[in-house]
Amino acid sequence: MRLRDLQDRLRAHIRGRISRGELTGLALSRQAGFQQGHLSNFLNARRGLSLESMDRLLATLQIEVLDLVEAGDLQRRPPAANAGLESVATVSLEHAARLPRFTPEQIGGAVSFRKTFLRRLKANDICGRSDWLRFVTIQLDRKSAKAMFPRGAAGAMLLIDRHYTSLDPYRPRQPNLYAVRLEARWAVGYVSLAGDHLVLRPRNPEAAVETARLNRTRRYSDCIVGRVCHVALEV
To answer: Which helix (H) or strand (E) holds 181?
Structure first.
């Protein structure tokens, strides 16, 4: 990867954390030992950083270079015949729900999708996740599979778009299918709001409807891991 691309991803990472209120540009510049104007010029792409300055920023942010690398970049370069494919990391739902990016140890494999398919998927992010790795795949466990399919389909692979956290319909008059985090567990289903509760309706009509209480510190979007945009199931 070129240094310029790496710095672009660092900019996106910092902007994302600032937009989510996790830090401020002033505090970051002070902690890293930069003048505020120096950091501002970097974030607005008016200048680059030396390797030493990048190291200082990474240390202050408590991240490593690998946290800025796309999961597909960690894979070996595919042969020319696969040039039209992109590898999407397979991770646990717990990691998908809370981590912007993943270390090699957190990646359990990869699933290939056509680049043209991934590029045409529309994002609708209201959580400020521009610095998050957008696509991940997860594998359904038995309980989640039962809520998805009447006969169960443990092992089904779901492609999750973590840049789609809005409840706006992706297609007119069709509900979106989401992966969500409910308290200490995760589930997959159709999401709606009822007062101060998030309602999760499973795809399987025989499975139970679940709810999660919302408040000032917990918005509905905080529960959403992302939109399910592809299901792969072996039969």
So the answer is: strand 177-182
Helix axes 3-19, 25-32, angle to 10 degrees: 130
**Which amino acid appears at position 61 of this protein?**
L
Decide if 3-68 and 71-232 have a common fold.
Answer: no
- Say which CATH class 71-232 falls into: mainly beta
Instruction: State how far the alpha carbon of 168 is from the alpha carbons of 97, 171, 174, 178, 227, in Å.
Output: 20, 9, 10, 12, 11
All residues at 6 or more sequence positions from 171 whose CB lies less than 8 Å from its CB, including other chains: none
Q: Domain coordinates of the chain in residue numbers?
A: 3-68, 71-232
**Residue 189 burial by CB count (10 A; 0-12/13-18/19+): exposed, middle or buried?**
buried
CATH code that applies to domain 3-68:
1.10.260.40
Alpha carbon 131 to chain centroid distance? 9
Confidence (pTM): 0.65
pLDDT tens string 128-173: 888 899 999 988 776 666 666 654 455 678 899 999 999 999 988 8
Per-residue DSSP letter, 69: S
